[in-house]
Amino acid sequence: MNLVVVESPAKAKTINKYLGSDYKVLASVGHVRDLVEKDGSVRPDEDFAMTWEVGARSTKPLNEIIAAAKGADKIILATDPDREGEAISWHVLEVLQKKKVIKGQIVQRVVFNAITKSAVTEAMLAPRDIDMELVDAYLARRALDYLVGFTLSPVLWRKLPGSRSAGRVQSVALRLVVDREIEIELFRTQEYWTVEADVSAGGDPFLARLTKHEGKRLTKFDLANETSAFAARDAVKAATLTISAVEKRPAKRSPPPPFTTSTLQQEASRKLGFNAQRTMQAAQRLYEGVDIGGETVGLITYMRTDGVQTAPEALDEARTVIGGLYGRDYVPDKPRIYSTKAKNAQEAHEAIRPTSLARNPGKLRLDPDLGRLYELIWKRMIASQMESARIERTTIDLESSDGKTALRASGDVTLFDGYLAVYEEGRDDPEEEAVSKLPQVTQGAAAKTLAARADQHFTEPPPRYSEASLVKKMEELGIGRPSTYASVLTVLRDREYVRMDKNRFIPEDKGRLVTIFLEEFFLRYVEYDFTAALEEKLDLVSAGELDWKVLLREFWTDFHPKTEEVLKVSTREVLDALDGALATFLYPPKTDGSDPRTCPTCNAGRLSLKTSRFGPFVGCSNYPECRYTRPISEAEDGDSPSGDRELGVDPDTGLTVFLKSGRFGAYVQLGEGEKPKRSSLPKGWSAPDMDLEKGLRLLRLPREVGLHPEDNQPILAGIGRFGPFVLHAGTYANLTGADEVFEVGLNRAVDLLAQKRAGGRPGRGETAALKDLGAHPADGAPVKVLSGRYGPYIKHGAVNANVPRGTDPQNVTLEQAVLLLAERAAKPSSGKKKPARAAKAKAAPKAAAAKKAPAKKTAAKKKPAAKKAASA
Predict the structure, then answer these.
(1) Which of 467, 522, 571, 668 has the fewest beta carbons closer than 10 A?
(2) What's the CA gap between 52 and 38, in Å, rounded?
(3) pLDDT averaged over the chain?
(4) Domains observed in the chain
């Protein structure tokens, strides 16, 4: 019997069918070991020795691998064909060697770029040893991330309370978001005008723009106000125009290459609205295999790659499919060969493509996410091997008889659509202005102005980053690796360093503070060039050109003394440095020219940055006499640094409604006095957008939705500690958002309450499944996502596993569920341990217990594990 070790249960099931009864395929279920989550797991003083531990979820699958390896003739490590996959194979081999399981068995490493029968069979015929250079690169990266996380994060916790963590790549990605926000804040809008005219030269009218006025070639800001723009418009109306030139230039548009990890994430964000994590989850399922006509088939090649090259047989198939679907005119004379930009050839795998282009997406029945992503990958691959689009770019110049006024019209005519018949690449900020089609005109012909318009415009700041544009920027700068982008961006959201608004990243206050702190005290380690240079060195390690421990020594020699130096800086010095760096943000200029740092409450104290266990805030220097505080967020206008303002008067009570800022955020308040009614702004509501109507709606909560039809008791809707809710007879049911509190009707409220009562408490029946995931690969029993009292959870038989916090239950896949269930099943039941301990204590004689008592007093108290420091 031959043992094959892969990463996921789905992959194991598929490959087992291909290899037959002589092979037993088992899944490691991801990484089997990781660094112990406490300080000291990487020890620089011991030449960077590392302490690994088997994770709880890996215990069961690893024991199965160990048991199978004992009786195996050959052990084949077939994990993914990248740095992480090489590392998993190395970890499995290390465990087998330490358990002394390997006694003469042949151990081989095989890789395949696609999970198809031919790819797997061919891979088995070309085994190799584990590539230790790739493993060294993994070890170096893991050690670097650990050292930064477990060394830098504690500095943040001590010097900047409220901060969560720092990371080698995470913090640099956050800096990109913060730098862009500062750029937007510093941007000053500038007015400019354009003049356009509808012109006819004997045929269909076309649009032309003014390019010369009063004999001068116009630049963007030459028409700076209404007066000059209207004068230019009138000059166009009065001009006698002639077609002075007609230029037609043929041009080509070549197709983009097939997808890499990064470009797939970008296009899925632009075209499908997927975030990076959702994209990679769907791609993983397509790669590992989907049931097609009763057979599990891997639909795409490996989805973590920097390469754009394609196997010759795939190029031949693409040309055949294109000819059959679109005709021979769409097939170029020879295949298009794309070259990769990856600096490390060992990791320059094939591009992401369908394993067979004959599987047309329109004929496959896939889950919605899988179907849409597969179609995107299929179209991109097909387009990459099609003919270029041929276009004709036409420019028409018009000039007045006196030569003082000139206009220009531009347009494209598509002569042959080529690859555009299948696919056109998306843009982060596509220009709405359509390219016009121009009529046939003759040079020297007279032209008539039918209408002229002067339009006002304002310059706009650079847009905030979307997932697609941030991933693109990180790749351009060489920060991180495409396979890590999804997890890095997820960490930024989970740490609440950023929030998403209209699919754009906006830094939260704590994210801005962490970035400024790192720029002030650890600038080198968040510089883009430094981070990119470190990635290049990691590539040199994987190429065998640099020793991984030499790289770690160079980094640690400078980094460790810097952290020790910053630890000696007092918290007050840190706050003063941040206060100075953030001065323009914290204290915007007042319109009356007065000092923006003057306390608006006592008019005597000076505002400065302070901190508490909840994090930094702005407070008055006259504390405790003056208790004025506010969050660090910038005020709405210069006259009110605190953001406090009157929203209006409540018509029912005659009291003034105020918008105020407190230490814990913005809130609305009705009237003054000792205990005025207050309501915090719910998540997603911003202080600048608040008005009287919104304030009164909040202050009048909870509101009565109606009477429950069963008992005629009122149903209330409100916003509580755990978010928006409806309440009836002691039962709370969650609403989807704050806005629904004001809109929810009686029928929906009754339905939500019924669902909560059906599935919210143990023993009262099971609620309807939020999602049916399918059959468990181990026993075929159903796996479902259900709604429970403490949130959504996954159920398989008697095993329940919580859906991780922040994860949309609708996005949970069967593979993720199997991993979570395995992890939960591996944990010992607390209910079983307690009786065992109790029985043991009861059986022990009192004298023996008395003898053991002194030993308990003298035993060294076990130190708690250090707080986990997330790093990327």
Answers:
(1) 571
(2) 11
(3) 84
(4) 2-130 (3.40.50.140), 164-187+465-569 (1.10.460.10), 191-254+390-458 (2.70.20.10), 261-387 (1.10.290.10), 587-699 (no CATH), 711-826 (no CATH)
